[in-house]
What does this fold into?
Amino acid sequence: MKRHLLNMPSYVAIWLTIAVSTFRIFCTPCKTWSKACGIFQAETLKTPAYNERELKTLARFVFKLKNYFPWKVRCLEQALTVHYLLKKRGYNHTLYFGMLKDDRNQWRAHAWVRCGDTWVIGYQPEQDYTVVGTYAAIVSEHD
It folds into this structure.
């Protein structure tokens, strides 16, 4: 049986996961850490199989803790943190990467995560990001 997300690791554990995500992004090649993200250019099903309240609680923890770093924790670090925590708990989910040209004709990148039919963290429906990559994290059931 899957563990419930409310049996969350402590704030310290989530804070450390954000720090490790930041380290992986800046200190290892993208090719290395992206292999662990799942199946490239695939998505998981958009089924209402997960408790939205639990998923939002996880996102709220990550969103709060990002303010306790001496550097700015961006969307990629947040998305990878949520990805890792969902994967650890056995939840299938999809990690999205998108691009957008802003008003100043500059490219902006963004990352977000969906679990079931719930946008967990980073989704911005008001922005018209073009999805340039997805990773489906399909976790095998091993109770």
